[in-house]
Amino acid sequence: MTGGVKMADRDYAYAVGRIRILETKLLPTAFFERLLKATSVPEALRLLEETAYSLDGRAADYEAAFEEELFRVYQFLRDLTGDAPELLVFLHRWDLQNLKLLLVADGNVQPSRLGVIPFPELKRMVAAGDYTTLPPEFQAVLTSLPEAGPDRAAALDQAYYRYGWRIFGKHTGLLRDYWRARMDLLNLMIFLRLRKRDAAPGELTRFLVEPGFIRRDDWRSRFEESQPELGILLERTPYRDLVRGGDRILIELSSLERAIDDYLLAIAKAAKMVPLGIEPLIGYLLAKEREILNLRLVFTGKLNQLPEETVRRRLRDVYL
Question: Which pTM value belongs to this model?
Answer without folding.
Answer: 0.91
